[in-house]
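Bench notes, afternoon.
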Amino acid sequence: MGVFEYRQAQEVRDAFARQAVRYLFIGKSGAILLGFPDTTQDAHLFVERSQENAQALVRALIELGFALTVTQQREIERGKDFVQVKNGPFDLDLVFAPDGIEHFEDAWSRHVDVEGFSVCHPDDIIASKRAANREKDRESLPRLESFRNYWLRNLQHRSNPSR
């Protein structure tokens, strides 16, 4: 699989907006949208766990061209903690219960809007990576923490002018 591209993030943003899906970009894809200089193969989306949101999410994924299996659709509808969707135009990881973040509403209250993208705050991205404690996450933490500090000093006001 290739690199997840900005154009694909725009497609997700627009389809999710049309279906009124409540979600946040999280993980490296979220950090990249905030300006983190890196690439990723897929997007991680922290999705609000509710029946209405799950149904909107399924509609948005189908609209984007994902051929959801019955099993995937059921996993999404019941809000399974983690659902990988690779049977579409790009790879998405749907996360209903990310490590290190208790509730969607908590992350939503801290989220950052970047060009219409709803993105987890860098502190939540870092907390999630730290809690996941995978080797690749541990290796990226120092760079993410350095980026967060830079972002707080220099970029935050550009991302969220209302805050």
